[in-house]
Write a structure and sequence with these properties.
The protein contains three helices and five strands, in the order ααββαβββ. The protein is an alpha+beta fold. Strands 3-4-2-1-5 form a five-stranded antiparallel beta sheet, covered by helices on one side. The longest helix has 18 residues, at 21-38.
């Protein structure tokens, strides 16, 4: 996860996206953790794009399960990742891939514009 967080932090700094960068990095960390814990091989790919005031962060993995928001009890030590994503992001979802795995994505409204794309395998 450190490599993915560092990549996103660097990209957002380069693109001068500051209004949602901390939330985006935290959400990426949660999505990447899910990919490692629940993906078929633990490997994942991070893709980030910026288009017309919308920052989109995607995590591609080979797992077949669909993530869902948990309902942890006060005593549970996990199961809160997508609750965090839901509370911080302007939207999130899952795009299944027939051939292999899925993409879990999250989006943030930002005041930054332009068209940018960055990708890193993790």
């Amino acid at each position: 996860m450190p490599e993915a967080r560092s990549f996103l932090g660097s990209v957002l700094e380069e693109w001068e996206v500051t209004d949602c960068s901390e939330d985006a990095v935290l959400c990426l960390s949660e999505l990447a953790t899910n990919a490692v814990r629940h993906g078929a091989h633990g490997d994942f790919l991070v893709e980030v794009s910026l288009d017309e005031g919308c920052l989109r962060v995607e995590v591609h993995d080979t797992g077949t399960g669909a993530p869902r928001v948990g309902k942890p009890s006060e005593d549970d030590t996990d199961g809160r990742g997508l609750l965090i994503v839901t509370s911080l992001a302007d939207g999130w979802g899952v795009t299944p891939h027939d051939s292999c795995g899925k993409t879990v994505w999250t989006e943030f409204k930002t005041t930054e514009g332009g068209m940018q794309v960055g990708v890193i395998p993790c």
